[in-house]
Amino acid sequence: MKKSIIFKVGTFSLVLLIGVLSFYSYKISYSNVISNEDIKNSREVNNFESEWAFLNDIEENNDTVLESIDSNLDFNKIIVAPADDKEDPSKLVRDNPDKGVSKPTTAKKAVKKYETNETSLGIDVSTWQGKINWKKVKQSGISFAMIRCGFRRLDSGTIVMDNQFLNNIKGAIANNINVGVYFFSMAKNKTEALEEAKWIVNVIKDYDITYPVAIDIEIFNKNRLKGVSYSTMTNNALVFCDYIKKQGYTPMIYSYANAFTKYFDTAKFKGQRIWLAQYNDKVTYKGNYHMWQYTSSGSVPGISGRVDMNVAYFSVTNDVTKASTVNGITNTGNLDKVTFKEMNMNTTLTKDVTLRSSPYTTLPNKAGILEKGTYVVVTGMSDKFIRVLYNGNTFYINDVNCFVMDLAPVNFDLVDLNVRCNREITLLYKPYNFLLNNEYKKISALEELRIVGVNSSYVKVLYNGEYYYVNDVDFYDVIRDNIYQGSITS
Length: 490
What we know:
single chain, about 500 residues, alpha/beta, TIM Barrel, 4 domains, six-stranded antiparallel beta sheet, 10 helices, about 25% helix
């Protein structure tokens, strides 16, 4: 009897244990599914049209779109990072070669070189500068400080506060130094970008922020961002900036020249302030920027060790509460004009292509990716670019062979005329004036030709025993009409 009871109890316990393990196994499996789905969603799964629609929605109805991106952030549980946090993303990029070679400089030299009526000199600081004597910093001539308020950890994704943030922001403000803040982002989707923006606004709400609130994005396709597309990174920055602006602050995007040129869809940043990192004597980046981080090897009284130094091309910038003039720099350089032959062809792409906002590959003008098979209207062609109309916007593609060239037959009314040119004309191989390498030669005025066909746009001629076309129907005077009528297709 006792053995039977023991056996039943044991069996029940075993079943219960299996049930519990199965439940947790299910939870773990379900958790993995959600995690994998999040990663999948962080990739570029939406087509280009939906991404532009998303951005247009933000511009037209900021409140609705941003509130629809939910966040589970608990502002009562702000974590302060240790002084040497093992998941601090800045460890990966402190000596990023893509920023250039950092040259030592002093505050005295920097002020003399960069401080003018149109610019101001500043620094950006974080836990890596340790305790700062802000009184000495002020006395050195520094006008502003961009202070790191926090970061999202490299792999775990936890949002933490820089352990020197409170000391830095209080010390800078107490010494009448204008302050802005930045957050080192590791957001892998729009939801996380919004979380970061909301977190920042919560921690800075009690301070007088007179310079921008910046998102720092300089890690791509590494750690928790592995597999996240450049387009997603672009949209993350825009979600962040729109929320920051909605809260009454001036947003700004920080990264380095190569990222703005090759990674981001920088054309979508039009209207945003750009904080450019390029360690050089002068900026070679071909784009717009409003703040320039020109070295990470600055020496400033009150700070032990090296510090990043910056030039801002504005004074205070808080658009809502401060009078502001934001100049910025346009560094596009002298560009050769690109001339397009006009056309109007409804067609589809034969390969994946990069869209650009201007017909140059040397500028930070990427606007996204269009996939093979996408319908576009080609409105112009040059020797290297086509101009397309897509989703109501004009873009440029650096590939003249990426679309189906649908050359519809051109019909002509048959004639037989001997004519004399009354002006210079160009003979074409085919009756399509937008085609490249389509010109045969120019014919001067008074030269005689034989016309064999006409329509409303082109004339078909016989010249030196070969047929050509002229995109001009009034270039001639008739010498003799041979009275031949009919129709023909080219």
